[in-house]
Amino acid sequence: MRKIFERPKVTYVVLVVAIVGFFALSAVGNNGTDAENAKSGVTWIGNIGWAMFLLSILATVLYTIALAVRAARSRRPA
Q: Is the confidence at residue 78, as pLDDT, over 90?
């Protein structure tokens, strides 16, 4: 866990790549109306992509908050 906080640039790059990848995956099977998408049978892939996109956004927000809290605690005088 310490390694994640020691290298925030690498962690943010990984999170951004995950965000972009999952957002692109969320478009799979969603190329028509709702009725047409229901018939295609592959909308579950897009649904998983969308859920993972939202989780990666949440992970990014929580990581940013954790970094801010960690920085605030380390600046506090003894």
A: no
